[in-house]
């Protein structure tokens, strides 16, 4: 059996602004997600992480447009499906998305249970309200969430509990792939841990078969992800296992990202490590960018970097998008250049 649950190939999506300009938010993204794996997608705010997630769900509503590329869920290119088929047969069942700040989108005037009934009935119209609430209660308990939450209003729950409730609801139909967009930001540390524990439990119990975890905090992914893709200005600039990307980043951006973080965690931060910021700002995604998108902020850039688009370069099972050879880059990192 093909273990590839998701295969994305050279995906381009953009926003059309009111003044007719195009924001090239996702520009040539390719990756695969296999059963049993958690892929972390990391990058600064505005690099296109959420747009990529929306794109994978086929949520192409203006101003977001699909330009080209393949999004294949278990071999089926969802861009070739009618939206209604995608909505009923794929969304929530094959792939589910927890948007950023989803917990704040729960209707405060409706009980959680009523919301659950609405969500499930779209996909399983034959189930009665009672059956849905029984099924939800069992699932909640199995995820260590008290089933009485179903009788509560969102305002009665803490932020952490609300987020875990949203995750439980989003996975009620056992989606094979779960995309969680910044699911732990805006939560206190203990709630963050509880959310991560729940996501791990969903994987371990095989409620979900694979996950994409989006965050701007690269080191957080060490605790969550098997593999990491680093995104910069609409492109993936590096892919590898979590350990490789965090402890041995190849691309100058990933390297700079690891050098610019503040984490009170011995494993990541030795006392001798200096914290650097990444000077400059990402390019304007409305403009055509000819060369490497990181060139203007890269300490190693040379003329050729600004002249031609830089292709992905494989290194074993890893990938990075840079003109400089790996050994050369590593040498420079060692010497702190
Ligand atoms: N509705 C929109 N119209 C036009 N441009 C948009 C729209 N939404 C996002 N963008 C632009 O698309 C690019 C990618 O944004 P996106 O929200 O996907 O980034 P992100 O990495 O998820 O950032 P954040 O973590 O802050 O949400 C940015 O340049 C952003 O300004």
From TrEMBL:
Keywords: ATP-binding, Nucleotide-binding, Transport. CDD domains: ABC_NikE_OppD_transporters (cd03257). GO terms for biological process: peptide transport. It holds the Pfam family oligo_HPY. GO terms for molecular function: ATP binding; ATP hydrolysis activity. It comes from the Bacteria. SMART domains: AAA (SM00382). Gene3D superfamilies: P-loop containing nucleotide triphosphate hydrolases. Residues 6-258 form the ABC transporter domain. InterPro entries: AAA+_ATPase, ABC_transporter-like_ATP-bd, Oligopep_ABC_C, P-loop_NTPase. This is Oligopeptide/dipeptide ABC transporter, ATPase subunit. It comes from Winmispira thermophila (strain ATCC 700085 / DSM 6578 / Z-1203) (Spirochaeta thermophila).
